[in-house]
Amino acid sequence: MARIITGVEINRQGIQAVEISVPLKKQVQLLRYIEEPIEGDGLSPDGLSLFFAEHGLSKEEVVTAVPGDLLITREISVPFRERGKIEKILPYEMEPLVPFPIDELDLAYRILRQEQGKSELLVYALPKSVLDRRTQLFEAAEVPLRMLSVSSLSAANTLLQTGIIPQDGEGLHLHVTSDFSILSLYRQGKLTHFTRIQWSDRNYFEKIQEITGLEGPILAERLAAATQAEAAEIEEPLGDVTAKLSGQIQRSLQPLLLSPPGRLPNALYVTGAAPGLHLLTPFLAAQLSKQVEIPNPLQQLEHNLAPGQACQGVHAPLGMALMQGGRDAIACAYRKKKSSFAARLVESKRQLRYAVFIGVFLLVGLLADFYVGIQAKEYQVRRIQQEMRSLFQETFPNEKNVVNELEQMKLLVKEIEKQNEIFENVFGEKPSPLEILKEITERIPNEIQLVINNFSLDDRSVRFVGWTDSFNSVNRIEQELRKSPLLATVKVSNAKVGKSKEQVNFQMTITFES
Questions:
Q1: What is the mean pLDDT of residues 171-197?
Q2: Has residue 369 got a pLDDT over 70?
């Protein structure tokens, strides 16, 4: 059964979403691509919830991304190969390399190389506050998130996974947003350069509006269907805007020309969601002396989209969905929640072998636990038997021939009970000290204040010294106690007014039936 994964990209222009189907063996299929403009300053939780409801988008496995303007990338080496050890030591290795407190960052990493007990890592760090805002938006919209990524890296993942940038080759990637652009370089599928460029598509699109006199949605439709002659008419006045972008790209790449291998790819791939982005390509090609193109991943994927449907905004959400589907060349997933065990079983043979290994490991663990439990219980039984023998010998020291402590103790206790019954029938049952105290407590009226300063009890009598509020209370206590059939005599002595004039001190002696 195929999994349905939904990738969602949110920016100032609008919201884009893709749904892909990830079957067990067949090629990934792109089911839908949906985009809508956002009105106002941003997308609200109600707007996001409505977007999912109106288009019937699957919430089974949803992944989204955040902008990459605050992303920090570092390449480090750690003396471990095990992921558990890597994750423990990673914050300490990164702390001196980042301009933020390490506890304010979320970290993700990709293993570049492993050899001789060490690992070379590419680490991605993002402020938690950036991820928190995006997470809270989806939580408020009641859309469960499986994973958070970075928009520009997600777009690059699409280019790498569809073979547009060969994983054994190299390519330049420019991801354009409404607030900034990200320029990155990939060699052998490895990110080797990542920088933020101030140029954004907002001023670019505003310039096109100024040239054409058309507004947003209408202009977007006209640009998508523009003829070559119409495009050429718009392109000429855009020279100054694109020259600014070209200058920033060239300045960003200059340090790379001074370091080995000292050369740059001949192709620049541009991704983004702004209408009219394709008008950039001839200018950048001329000014940078490179092949510049907006790639179409639909040519490499099975899909049901209508011919000619715009695809320039599909890269980032498609890359997110591919990451969740197990096709992740970038490995920059944050706060990733694990899929169900059943879904993990069908993802690959490797994971199936892993699941079998885990099952065998658990079975061995259960058998070992069972064996250890049996040994522990046998030890506990022996210890209890020893305690029973010690208790038996202490209770019945005259018994020498001990075979079964429990059964012999039961028989001896029954003999003692029979002797007590004979004694009680002849002499009558004698009340216990606890029964005497209970009787005295229940006989004294609750409303009388009584404080006992000294108290003694033996097998024949109770004596106590205390005080109460009046002589009348002393008389009532004495009268109530004399009514008890368990008490033989009740005698009050030394009753007198205390120093405070509000207390009557007295002594009481009580004897009971022997």
A1: 92
A2: yes
Contact 335, 149 (CB under 8 A): no
Place of tokens 């993942």: 157
Q: Say yes or no to pLDDT of 343 above 50.
A: no
| Token pair listed for 501 | 């004039």
Determine the distance from the C-alpha atom of residue 373 to the mean position of all C-alpha atoms in its chain, rounded to a whole number: 33
* All structural domains of the chain with their residue ranges: 166-294, 365-427, 433-512
Name the pTM for this structure: 0.65
CB-based burial of residue 342 (10 Å sphere; 0-12 exposed, 13-18 middle, 19+ buried)?
exposed
**What pLDDT digit, counting tens, does each position of 349-367 carry?**
555 666 688 888 888 888 8
Sheet holding 145-150, edge to edge: 145-150, 61-66, 3-10, 14-22, 29-37, 302-303
Please report, to the nearest 10 degrees, the dihedral formed by the alpha carbons of residues 137, 142, 147, 150 taken in order.
-30
Q: Which two tokens stand for residue 375?
A: 């040994």
Which DSSP helix (H) or strand (E) runs through 201?
A: helix 201-212
- Domain 166-294, what architecture? 2-Layer Sandwich (3.30)
Q: Does 140 have pLDDT greater than 90?
A: yes
